[in-house]
């Protein structure tokens, strides 16, 4: 090949590459990224208290904390009975909004006595489904209505 044809070939290749670069660069700036946004849906009215029972955002359900209430009163029987009732209340809330225990991804536990942690875990383990959700546990000085345990969960489909 002559110097002229080598030079023309190089020029043509450079032109095509630069056109491709310009085209791909402009294509990237004009492509719109669409992010689905979902407005919160507030569920349940909390009864006489100023909070929602749950809030759904997209496929995630954020539930208010539950204590061991049954028929408007705190169940008797200590930490084990309260924990069982709390988890039953959470299950009822999940079902009400179309979720299951296996949809729970996170729980936050509050205990008024950290010495109850082992008894709490025995009931929790028997009531929850593997793989267990991620969880935090905190010792608190007091809970509403004199409860020993409160659990707040998030579920996702």
From TrEMBL:
Q: What domain of life does the UniProt record list for this protein's source?
A: Bacteria
NAD recorded as keyword: no
> What are the record keywords, sorted?
Signal
The positions making up the signal sequence are 1-27
One cellular component term (GO) for this entry is:
cytosol
Q: Which InterPro entries match?
A: RidA_CS, RutC-like_sf, YjgF/YER057c/UK114
**Matching Pfam families, A to Z?**
Ribonuc_L-PSP
GO function term, MF aspect, one: deaminase activity
Is Signal tagged as a keyword? yes
Q: Tell me which family the UniProt entry assigns to this protein.
A: Belongs to the RutC family.
Q: Which PANTHER family match?
A: 2-IMINOBUTANOATE/2-IMINOPROPANOATE DEAMINASE RIDA (PTHR11803), 2-IMINOBUTANOATE_2-IMINOPROPANOATE DEAMINASE (PTHR11803:SF39)
Protein name according to UniProt: Superfamily protein
Organism encoding this protein:
Psychrobacter nivimaris
